[in-house]
Amino acid sequence: MSKADDTQQSPWLQAGRLAFLALYVFAALAALSWLLSNVREVKPANRVVVLRMGVLQRAQNAGLLLAWPQPFEQVVTLPAAETVLERRVEPLLRSRRAKQADMSAEDDDEGEPVGDALAGSGYLLTGDAGIVQLDIRVFYKVVDSFAYVLQAEHVLPALDRIVTRSAVAVCAARDLDTILVARPELVSNGNQDAASRERLRSDLLQSIKEILRESLQQAVLLLMYKEVVALMANSDTLLYQTVFMGIIFAGLVVCEHFRSLD
Question: Packing angle between helix 238-261 and helix 192-234, nearest 10 degrees?
Fold first, then answer.
């Protein structure tokens, strides 16, 4: 038997070939798994937004999604437009530190008094100097998927602030009897207070809508102002600057018109 045949029949060489073959198969499977990583089924309760190299590319509802793997395309899963989401407004609840301070005060009567910030946590002041606690749950839908993806981390905190601001304003404009839901001793006095308590939720909802509308108008005006200022900075003639100022004035008039219609 020749020396070449001995080399081909060497156990080390055969083991190296098998190891190389196994590594090749593993690399091929890993590459195939990476290539198909963004090929998935979108459930009926969800929809996805595809970003190509960080740019919003398309939105797709339920069905089979075909997308390039990361980092070429990124897939963000969102609830469907028909899905109703629930959000409990945590800032209106008593904080954990306040609850711990309450428990410490109950255990130790001679302890240090609770500060004003902790003592007032979770309470709202009414128009007749009463205090109430509200547990508000907001139900909402994601309509604009592109806008939600761009501002996802700011949506829920902004929603909490808007609802908290509306709750403070609504409670300050009402007395305690028109806020409390269960007051059987007041029913015999008339239906006016009962009707006022029934309108509490609708007034709160209307206040939230007004704040959202004002925020949207301010955002549009700010965007128009920035665009016009940029155009004015690049224009040299007085005529162009006058036209741009007219555009700003027209935007203000339109916003005031829609506000008067509401």
Answer: 170
Model pLDDT for residues 208-245, shown as the tens digit of each residue: 888 888 877 776 666 666 665 666 566 555 555 566 56
Contact 141, 82 (CB under 8 A): yes
CA–CA separation, 85 and 137 (whole Å): 10
Sheet holding 73-79, edge to edge: 55-60, 46-52, 73-79
Judged on CB neighbours under 10 Å (0-12, 13-18, 19+), 47 is buried
Using alpha carbons, list the distances in angstroms from residue 246 to 234, 241, 253. 17, 9, 10
Neighbours of 223 (CB within 10 A): 11
pLDDT digit string, tens, across residues 150-173 = 888 888 888 888 888 888 888 888
Give CA–CA dist 38/33, Å, rounded.
9
Cβ–Cβ < 8 Å for 73, 34: no
* Strand ranges inside the chain, DSSP E: 40-42, 46-52, 55-60, 63-65, 73-79, 85-88, 124-125, 131-132, 137-140
Eight-state DSSP code of residue 66: -
Q: Express each pLDDT in 1-17 by its tens digit.
A: 455 555 556 777 777 78
Read off the tokens for 247.
Answer: 């555009």
The label of the residue with tokens 């070429």 reads 72
